[in-house]
């Protein structure tokens, strides 16, 4: 089945936030934000701004009727700065005017006096002076101390990975108005409707039942709208409350890039030990997470870094410690992979480093140490239906790895300034919110009396195709033509207390709820048939679009006739189902449990060609064997693999966030922040859909596919590194991602510029 949005997307007819027709009297918001990364606000002067044409209201923290607080996990983040500012771009005031331009021009006239305070942007520096978001956490398995003592080879090093701008095509935004009697409606581009509702209610000082949050679809989220869609929606709500007029707030790209948090940069130390057979016996790692100026989701991201610190390898003795370090950057937040990629980059760096010292290919060490059935993760969960080795072997065989290797060797011997490099990247990603309580969902299904069906869930469509999957689930269970079914907007008045659409778990969680609701409705319809036809108990009944079968024989009923007859017999045709993932649990006191419903595995082979005169490169090919279970929709899933892969390659190669000493973002536009475009994506992407066992906790055995493929992109870093070493074997490039063309050049010619 094709993506149900495809037709409207291509015709430009899909509705995003900015396409919603505005009501009469709508005001437009512009956010005035901090011009420094750390300081004390001494004075704010609105006198000139207030008198600018079109200005209706300027509001600050002083105008908040409820709590000026939007912190999710830790209450440490004001909606609007109060007294102090902690990052460049921190919202201080909101200007409301008749047009957006008027609001923007007025905001330029706001005078602010600030006493500058010292700025920290480096996580290790923050750690040194004790600036932590929360106490450190440690995951441990076995005993690394005794294991290292018995190791044949021990290596130590450091690895760093940079942040990443989400660059959703649709920037953050919301549109809010009063319905009546102090009740509000807000349309917002959020992955977490309930987060908007909860914080909106707290800021306005009203009950959540007074705020209806509605989400049609997002022009991309990637984690950037899991938590950080909230402030903009709450500002629009607050503006509506203060002026009694509709308020639209939609960030411009530069504002969005400057004010919102990104993927967490990490700096890490590793120590890895092998026995004489090259089995990893011990691994110690310390992560310094750059959390930015407030907690946001950093504690949960940090946790996932620990969960994935051994990637898809079995290591019997592990000690992993993670510090969440408070710096003067915008609070960093969820980003596809959610800390997992940062942890996985370090173990891959450790393996590459060890291979270099041992004079072998990293793939030898990778293959030797892959997880197998029954192995224990450092957090206590045991692998089940482990596909790590299967994926590796499948990639190896299907894509003829030895031949690929030979081709590269030959190419490199025949070319002086062009060098190819290859790397393998196995992945293992745990599916579930690591916070067990978040793994719940609801679905509301109405069968209308004409036989058409409306489905509401907590799932937010953000281009990932979840609505298509929800529709498939409903159609499959009800046994009817998909055309009858409509997936409604995600709305807190229909489906309440939703978890954000995140953690790759949206289709599983909401799909299971849809499945349950539809099964209940179907059973109810069957009971109705049995009563109407006076059938003996347990008579087999099958409902199909055109025909109903009783005891293998057709009766004079179609779906439409059946539905109407049930309605006329006063039978409920609506159902609300609740699903909570079984089997999962985790005890943070001992850092052990069974946090994930299942794991997703895969292996990618990545090859690249580096121009060793210019430092530029191309990703030649990426060949993947991926563990899909039994894919519910191969089109949607292939799109997720390709998109995730390219996003991961971007993070590892081109995308570089640069801040100056004062904490100001320098790469704040698409002219200076490079993302993969059509010219820099891999020339060839091949994806082999492995028909694996799946999991009964995956919807119809179709495994989660959102985040795992991003981590294939990590292989691009190591492929580039190998190409560099083919040109200059003595090179030992630092493990510092992204590997931009500039860094490639500096690594190829380390002495450049130092000669007289
Ligand atoms: N969000 C969250 C996530 O709150 N918890 C998670 O475990 C998670 N994992 C991936 C992406 N978002
Ligand atoms: Mo996400 S990083 O699953 O919002």
Automatic annotation (TrEMBL):
Pfam families: Ald_Xan_dh_C, MoCoBD_1, MoCoBD_2. Keywords: Molybdenum, Oxidoreductase. It comes from the Bacteria. Residues 11-118 form the Aldehyde oxidase/xanthine dehydrogenase a/b hammerhead domain. This is Xanthine dehydrogenase molybdopterin binding subunit. It comes from Adhaeribacter terreus.
């Amino acid at each position: 089945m094709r993506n149900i949005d495809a037709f409207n997307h291509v015709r430009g007819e899909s509705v995003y936030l900015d396409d919603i027709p505005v009501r009469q009297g709508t005001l437009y918001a512009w956010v005035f934000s901090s011009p420094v990364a750390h300081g004390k606000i001494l004075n704010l002067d609105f006198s000139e701004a207030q008198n600018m044409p079109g200005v209706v209201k300027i509001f600050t923290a002083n105008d908040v009727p409820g709590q000026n607080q939007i912190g999710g996990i830790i209450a440490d983040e004001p909606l609007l700065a109060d007294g102090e500012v902690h990052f460049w771009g921190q919202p201080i005031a909101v200007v409301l005017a008749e047009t957006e331009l008027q609001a923007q021009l007025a905001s330029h006239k706001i005078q602010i006096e600030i006493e500058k305070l010292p700025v920290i942007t480096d996580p290790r520096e923050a750690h040194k002076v004790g600036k932590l978001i929360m106490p450190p956490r440690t995951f441990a398995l076995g005993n690394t101390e005794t294991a290292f003592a018995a190791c044949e080879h021990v290596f130590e090093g450091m690895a760093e990975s940079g942040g990443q701008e989400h660059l959703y095509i649709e920037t953050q935004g919301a549109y809010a108005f009063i319905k009546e009697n102090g009740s509000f409606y807000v349309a917002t581009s959020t992955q977490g409707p309930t987060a908007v509702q909860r914080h909106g209610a707290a800021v306005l000082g009203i009950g959540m039942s007074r705020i209806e949050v509605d989400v049609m679809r997002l022009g991309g989220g990637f984690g950037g709208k899991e938590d950080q869609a909230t402030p903009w929606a709450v500002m629009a709500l607050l503006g509506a409350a203060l002026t009694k007029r509709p308020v639209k707030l939609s960030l411009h790209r530069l504002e969005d890039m400057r004010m919102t948090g990104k993927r967490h940069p990490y700096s890490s130390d590793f120590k890895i030990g092998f026995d004489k057979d090259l089995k990893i016996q011990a691994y110690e790692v310390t992560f310094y997470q750059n959390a930015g100026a407030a907690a946001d989701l950093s504690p949960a991201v940090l946790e996932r870094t620990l969960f994935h610190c051994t990637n898809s390898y079995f290591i019997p003795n592990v000690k992993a410690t993670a510090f969440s370090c408070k710096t003067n950057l915008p609070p960093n937040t969820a980003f596809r992979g959610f800390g997992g990629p940062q942890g996985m980059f370090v173990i891959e760096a450790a393996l590459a480093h060890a291979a270099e010292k041992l004079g072998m290919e990293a793939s030898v060490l990778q293959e030797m140490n892959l997880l197998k059935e029954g192995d224990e993760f450092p957090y206590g969960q045991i692998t089940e239906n482990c596909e790590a080795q299967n994926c590796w072997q499948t990639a190896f065989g299907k894509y003829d790895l030895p031949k690929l290797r030979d081709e590269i060797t030959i190419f490199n011997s025949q070319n002086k300034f062009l060098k190819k490099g290859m790397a393998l990247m196995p992945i293992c990603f745990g599916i579930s919110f690591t916070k067990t309580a978040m793994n719940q969902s609801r679905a509301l299904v109405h069968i209308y009396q004409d036989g058409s069906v409306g489905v509401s869930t907590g799932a937010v469509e953000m281009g990932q195709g979840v609505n298509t999957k929800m529709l498939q689930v409903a159609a499959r269970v009800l046994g009817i033509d998909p055309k009858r079914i409509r997936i409604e907007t995600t709305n807190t008045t229909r489906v309440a207390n939703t978890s954000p659409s995140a953690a790759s778990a949206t289709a599983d969680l909401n799909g299971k709820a849809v499945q349950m609701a539809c099964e209940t409705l179907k059973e109810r319809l069957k009971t109705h048939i049995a009563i109407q036809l006076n059938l003996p108990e347990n008579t087999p009944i099958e409902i199909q679009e055109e025909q109903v079968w009783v005891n293998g024989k057709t009766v004079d009923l179609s779906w439409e006739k059946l539905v109407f007859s049930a309605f006329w017999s006063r039978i409920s045709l609506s159902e609300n189902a609740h699903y909570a993932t079984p089997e999962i649990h985790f005890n943070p006191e001992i850092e052990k449990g069974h946090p994930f419903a299942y794991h997703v595995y895969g292996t990618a082979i990545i090859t690249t060609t580096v121009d060793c005169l210019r430092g530029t490169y191309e990703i030649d090919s990426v060949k993947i064997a991926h563990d899909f279970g039994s894919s519910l929709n191969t089109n949607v899933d292939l799109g997720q693999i390709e998109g995730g892969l390219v996003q991961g390659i971007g993070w590892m190669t081109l995308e570089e966030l640069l801040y100056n000493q004062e904490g100001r973002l320098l790469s704040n536009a698409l002219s200076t922040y490079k993302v993969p475009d059509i010219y820099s994506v891999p020339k060839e992407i091949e994806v082999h859909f492995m028909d694996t066992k799946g999991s009964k906790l995956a919807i119809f055995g179709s495994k989660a596919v959102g985040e795992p493929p991003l981590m294939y992109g990590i292989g691009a870093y190591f492929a580039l590194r190998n190409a560099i070493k083919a040109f200059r074997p003595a090179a030992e490039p630092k493990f510092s991602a992204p590997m931009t063309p500039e860094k490639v050049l500096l690594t190829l010619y380390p002495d450049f510029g130092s000669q007289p």
